[in-house]
Design a protein that fits this description.
Blueprint lengths: L1 E6 L11 H8 L4 E6 L12 E2 L9 E2 L1 H9 L8 E11 L2 H7 L4 E6 L7 H7 L2 E4 L9 H12 L31 E2 L2 E2 L2 H4 L4
Helix pairs in contact: 2-4
């Protein structure tokens, strides 16, 4: 699975170099490319935003710089482009599993008041939200999407790890216990002790 991430802040993705996702990248099961949108600005000081037409607070990312960054991606026509946006459909386990079947996903991280609608209409296949709240940008949602989808890519986890877990069959996972058998005076439930190998 290949992820291309269009972002103004590639340094925010440092956590993806660690743990399970980091190992999957090292083992070439996943490919995560960070594309700095600011690198495609033709402005003297690498400006990427401007005031919105019609007034209002905040700034809007300009269409040309986003479009040029997008056009730098190889084989973009075969990829699914997702814009991380509060207006999108909420990410859930069904969508995660559906996205894990894609071979190439491009994630577009917005900032400020958003991105000029004209470029969104031109390149975006789907808008996804990670919840009904507002964040400063799309980077954290992009990491959530990469992490949740990657768990279903063959070789990232042991296959049995995703068979029975929270949100499978619309249920949450049951409480988990490990050694020691007694912690702070509380014992592991007896029914589980009889199953321990």
């Amino acid at each position: 699975m290949k992820f291309d991430v269009l972002t103004l802040f590639p340094e925010m993705f440092e956590p993806l170099k660690t743990s399970i996702i980091g190992k999957a990248v090292q083992n070439k099961i996943l490919e995560i490319n960070l594309i700095n949108i600011r690198d495609f600005s033709k402005a003297k000081h690498k400006k990427v935003d401007d005031t919105p037409y019609g007034g209002g607070a905040g700034m809007v990312m300009m269409p040309e710089v986003v479009y040029d960054a997008y056009n730098s991606i190889k084989n973009k026509e075969q990829a699914k482009l997702i814009y991380l946006s509060p207006q999108g459909k909420t990410l859930n386990q069904k969508k995660v599993i559906e996205l894990s079947k894609e071979e190439h996903i491009i994630l577009l991280c917005g900032h400020y008041e958003g991105i000029d609608q004209r470029v969104l209409d031109e390149i975006v296949d789907e808008e996804i939200s990670v919840g009904d709240y507002v964040l400063t940008g799309g980077e954290l949602p992009a990491m959530i999407l990469i992490d949740s989808v990657s768990r279903y890519i063959k070789g990232v986890l042991k296959e049995e790890s995703t068979k029975e877990e929270s949100f499978s069959g619309n249920l949450l996972e049951y409480p988990q216990y490990t050694r020691p058998e007694v912690f702070n005076g509380v014992k592991v439930p007896e029914v589980l002790l009889s199953r321990t190998s």
